[in-house]
Amino acid sequence: MEPNPTFLKLHKPFWANVRSISEYLGYTERKTSQIKVPTPHEVIEALSALGLESPWLFDDKDIPTVEGKLLIEYFTYRAKMLNSFVEPRLLTAKTAKALFDNLYAKYQPTVPLVMNKQKGAKKAPSYLTCIVNTLIEANAKSHSCNYDPRQLTTITKKKRALRTLARRVDGAFPSVINPHAVWEIKEYYYTTTFGSRVADGVYETLLDGMELEELREHEGIHVLHYLIIDDHFTWWECGRSYLCRIIDMLHMGYVDEVLFGREVVDRLPIIVKQWVKEIEAKKA
Fold first, then answer.
1. Domain-by-domain residue ranges, the chain?
2. Intervals of the chain under pLDDT 50
3. Which pLDDT score is estimated for 172?
4. Cys bridge to 27: 138, 241, 246, 255, which one at CB 3.0-4.6 A?
5. How many CB atoms sit inside 10 A of residue 236's CB?
6. What string of H, E and C letters represents the secondary structure of 5-52?
């Protein structure tokens, strides 16, 4: 999923309100479990309960201002995309395995299989990671790729370290040093609850995004940043509020694109071919 241009480059107070209102009212409807779209009246009540003013969003007749309309439009868009686009694309361990088997047979990748950390019957390839690696290798032509960086991502200038990210990423193209693109993969096929480890994964991506934003704003260097996630039970049945946070993060500019489950099959080849095109254009 690419961000909707309507909601890009909005000021920080807009997102402060999105977060505060979402937390107070809740991210989902209790009766239907669908993503919640608050009404103007609910937004006003939420802000009042939080001790915040709302005239800049709604007048004394609860009629939204331009900013208020944009806020309601965003809540509506976020719910629509999660309910109708994201949820159908999230896989289970069974469907992820079937997709992995099909792509592995089709492309016969040379990239080593990455195994999950489960034991016994659950021990298997990390399906999403292997799918991602297979699709990148199949579309990267002869370009190298670091599928498993064992060091921190570093941006250099005149043979000096300009920035070094605080944590390791899951992949870098073409290299972890001065990458054109980096990505994080969050697959949780065998989890039974939405635990702190899953939540931490979201905040780790946010940290990366904030560091890359600072790099972009102060040095004019844009490293493309992607988040790739899957597992229907973990993200949809247990973690819908975190899916909302991920959509917020996408539109705040902390990731360039988020790929959900089976979306990688259609979208990732296009993305990788664009990386190749951009890298080759720089060399020309």
1. 5-89, 93-283
2. none
3. 98
4. 241
5. 19
6. HHHCCCCHHHHHHHHHHHHHHCCECCCCCCECCCCHHHHHHHHHHCCC
Please give the model's pTM, rounded to 2 decimal places. 0.94
| Both tokens assigned to 86 | 């994201």
Per the DSSP assignment, residues forming a β-bridge with 186 are 229
Token pair 């921190």 is at which residue?
152
pLDDT of residue 218: 96
pLDDT of residue 196: 81
Cis preceding linkage at 3, omega within 30 = no
Residue type, 4: N
Q: What is the pLDDT of residue 262?
A: 97
Contact of 96 with 127, CB cutoff 8 Å: yes
- Whose structure tokens read 């949809």? 236
What is the pLDDT at residue 195? 80
CA distance 40 to 50: 15
Residue 183 tokens read as 């990505």
Nearest to 203 by CA among 249, 150, 258, 241: 249
CATH number of the 93-283 domain:
3.40.580
Only one residue has tokens 């001065």, namely: 178
